[in-house]
Structure prediction request, 862 residues.
Amino acid sequence: MNSDRIFPEVDLRVHISAIVKPGIAGLLSMIFPTGAFAQDSRPDMIDPGMAMGFATLIISLGAVLFAVLTIFVVLRIKRKSSHIQTTGETQIALLRAQLDEYEAILSCMPEVTLLWLADQKPQVFGKPETLGFDNVPMDALFNFDQWLGQNDGAKLSTGVKLLRQNGQNFAITVRTTKGRVLRAVGEATGGTSIVRLRNATALSPQNAMPSAQHQTIQTVSQETPAPMPHGEGHALYPVLEMLEEPAWIRDLAGKITFANQAYINFCKQAGLDVGSGSIPDIFSQDQLKAQLDALNAQRQSSGSDKDRKNTIQLSQQMSGPEGERELVLSSLETGSVGYLKAPTPAQGTQQNSQGQTSTASHADWIIDALAGPTIVFDQDGKLKQFNKAYQELFGFADGWLVPGLNEREILDRLRREKSLPTVSNYRKWRQEHLESYKLDSQRKDDWHLADGRSFVVTVTPIADKGGVIYQFEDVSGRLRLESANKAMLNVQRQTLNALSEGVAVFGTDGRLRIHNPRLSGIWKLPMNELGLNPHIDQIAVACGNAIPEDGEDIWQGLKKSIIDLDPSRTDKSGRIKRKDGHLIDYAIVRLADTHTMITFVDVTKSANFEHVLKERNDALVNADALKDAFIQNVSYEFRSPLTSIIGFADLMAADNSGNLSEQQRNYIDYIRSSSAALGTLIDGILDLTNVNAGIAELDLKELDIPKMVARAKAGFAATLVQTDGIPPLDLVVNLQDPLPRLVADGARVVQILYNLISNAAKFSEPGAKISLDVEGNSQWVRFIIQDEGVGITRELEEALTGQDQGRSLKQLQRGAGIGLTIVKAFVELHGGNLDIVPNTPRGTRVIVNLPADASKLIDQAG
Prediction:
């Protein structure tokens, strides 16, 4: 049995059965007595009292059944509401946790991600220090000119601008002011623009000085490079820009037509004057002539051989701190390409007698410089070249990958190490993979490994010599983010569908982008028939068909607010009263991406309940006002005859002629005391009415407490009638010495004391003791009245505490309830409190606490 159910179904049926069955049995036994059937077939007359009893019993049973069913329905509604609230809170917590996880993943990746979400503030994820940005504020990364050279800063700014405006992706290489080379990749996804920055290669800036024989050369501004030719070398421009070594392209005449940023920096470090004109040349005329002669000789010796070696290396003495450097030149149809690098023992080259060295291909050094894992195979499937990134990607030991190794061997080893996609037929997959050597154009394959990594493998055929180039891109992080993003979108959609409000999101073109099923329920829209992203005009027409009275007019009115392009537009809300009787509350919210969200809530039932409650409340307020007016009118009307009664009674009591007997004088005394009590009661009712109406005012003065007590005693004595043989009440007054200071309304304090003493007297036996104690301090003054009577009833005490205006006359017998109500009203008007407790061994103890200076409390409240 579920612990949150207060009334389980089984127990509920048992309780109903226990209540209903005995009641029905008793009812039948009273209506059809068994003795009546046995003794006489003549129907007896039904007693009217018995009929009333039957009616009372039936009404009671109906009330019990109604109460039980009401409790059952309320509990079910409460459980359902609690479940909905708990589900919503859980889903919100899940979304927040997933968002934190995504941000943590982005922050841990070895790159920096710049993110633009529509019109929101740009965000940065990742660790800038991994790119060499130490102690750089996140916001400073968006000011590209601060940490990039002027050329690269403008290039990246232009790429970002086109990305955000046109969704044009880009991939460029830039160099920071500290010399670090970065790869910047920009992608647009929906309304989001993403730029990823990562290290392209480790930098070790090369500084060198030309030889003393170097002639003065013309220079060109770094900001305005010379025009670059089209042709064979044009495709090498982005590759050369990725290099950290100085690289350039010359035409057949030996003039530099293109130089990378590293070359320009090399010129600056060498002390060359970089101005305007042609690109500066770091070689002397003799060195340049030697290079051109070597290239021409190489071309002539190779002839038209398909496998000619068109790359040479020249060792030239440089005066920089690097010492001897190697000049690598490669011939092109339109000239040559070259770069400088420090010599390494692992080059595996052989110098000839002329100081020239040949290698496998002029593109080998380019493969080594690429940041992405790359491997090259010749037309026979033999390993030709690979870079360090490829070796590290799959964890190959040094020396295992050697030129001439067959690709099948590499694939088989990768399979044993579970570094290939998991397939059911490996031989078939390998055969299809090796078909790459027959490709005419570039192809991309997806590799999903068992260890969770995912790669995009770009297969590029080598058109002139045969063979293929494989480039690997690790997309594991991106796929994880995409998967997590899809999961988050699914959760968001489920949350949206579970809402009780109808939700619709419109674009600036007026087309519906997002909605939930509740929207169709409120407006009776056949969304399946409207197609994908219907226009608001289509929705208006469909709503007009479903709600012919005013459906289309309502949506046409909403259209003005939804497609409003005014930048100063604001959110709005209101209530729609449809002609079919439904009341719909709506709210229009402007979203940051220029979309507009509108929500609808059907409040017909709640509005009807609110209207009924308002009408009843107004009726109660009017009835209360009528009651107050009636009481005041009746009270004032009572005063006129009461004054006459008191006056004539006083005249008769003052007659000393002896015409009145002793019994007649006693009657007159009763009339006088009762009239005085009635006058006091009328005054109290009027004062109580003024207090409830909020128009009662206090005349605050510093009071003489003994005089106040004496006035209360005198008023009480005026209402008493001494009867021969009946002992009088013993009223004992105990005043603290010294008495505290009291600032209050004297008339109200006297009324408080009078009513307390009168109440104690009415519940006390003749001759009983009543005590009035006054004590206090600088903050409070306390009046304590104790009696030895039977005490007030609990019902009267509860009615007094709650000021129950509907208590019966029996509860207010002898005016006790009204008197204490007046006391409570005046005490609270002064800012005090009233407490009623039983007295020991019998009687009642009433404690009144008044502030010593009521004016301070009233000033604070005001």
Summary: The longest strand covers residues 192-201. Residues 48-108 form the longest helix (61 residues). The two ends are 56 Å apart (CA to CA). Residues 499-599 form a domain with the Beta-Lactamase fold (CATH 3.30.450.20).
